[in-house]
Amino acid sequence: MPATTDARGILSEANSEKRQEVIDMLKRAYWMEIETVMSYISNSVNPDGVRAQEIKESLEQDIQEELGHAQRFAERIKELYGVVPGSTEFEAEQTFLQPPEHQTDVVHVIRGVIEAESGAIDFYNEVIEATDGVDPVTNDMMIEVLHDEEGHRRLFEGFLREYEAEGLA
Ligand SMILES: [Fe+2]
Ligand SMILES: [Fe+2]
Looking at the chain, which terminus has fewer C-beta neighbours within 10 angstroms, N or C? Predict the structure, then answer.
């Protein structure tokens, strides 16, 4: 609990309920990033073939960015007087980013990445709406992270277009 006399803002006593709501959303966002890091590590290593190289390299770079997002969310949870959850609270959701049957199935990976990024984009928009006008710092952070995710998705949509144009997806 904050030892302050703030009259307004997300850290004020009056906003403690809203603050808890934001913390819960940030925890969910944190786990989404952690799972994305796991999925991108495996998918930056597993795929085989000449065409897989671009995808692997791109995911390899994304890993650091997604990890950075998780760290930013963790910091913000603490600033809001929350506690960053421990690993036993983790529940996996990314069924679509599991290794494909054949490691040359790059389209499976591309579609999985698009789905992961879309899930993040959808939820971060929800957080942006929920924090609008009440928690400008979380709001601002989420807008920046949303920008990253939109960039990631667009890049992989471009990869998918190439496969679709060649009748491979
Ligand atoms: Fe992310
Ligand atoms: Fe992303």
Answer: N
* Separation of alpha carbons 60 and 53, rounded Å: 10
Helix boundaries (H) for 13-51 = 16-43
Please give all residues whose CB falls under 5 A of ion ligand 1, grouped by chain where several chains appear: 33, 66, 69
In the structure encoding, which two tokens stand for residue 88, read together? Answer: 């036993």
CB 77 within 8 A of CB 27: yes
Burial class (CB in 10 A: 0-12, 13-18, 19+), 108: buried
Backbone angles phi, psi at 49, to 5 degrees: 110, 160
Which single residue is written with the structure tokens 């290794």?
A: 99
pLDDT reading at 113 higher than 70 = yes
Predicted TM-score (pTM) of this structure: 0.95
